[in-house]
Design a protein that fits this description.
Oligomer: single chain
Number of domains: 1
Helix content: 40-55%
Radius of gyration: 17 Å
Number of helices: 2
Order of helices and strands: EEHH
Strand content: under 5%
Distance between the termini: 31 Å
Strand order of the largest sheet: 1-2
Structural class: mainly alpha
Shape: elongated
Amino acid sequence: MACGPKGSAETSIEQCTVCGSRGELFELPGRIEKYCYECSADVATSILLTTEIDAANRSGDETAGLVAEFVQLGRRLLARAQLQ
């Protein structure tokens, strides 16, 4: 009996949604995707940074530092995703 993708005999192994690595994966609250350890930390950080940037914009505070950190984080995620 086939149990893997497209009728293969092997079971399907989940991959990190961002980088595609296999291994222990983590779910973040409110998300259905699963991430490896590194990507889960970066995605969680990006969620927090987005919240902080929005709050700073609403209150009229400076956001340049937060935006720079967000851009750096995005580059790190993109680089990791392109390695796979």
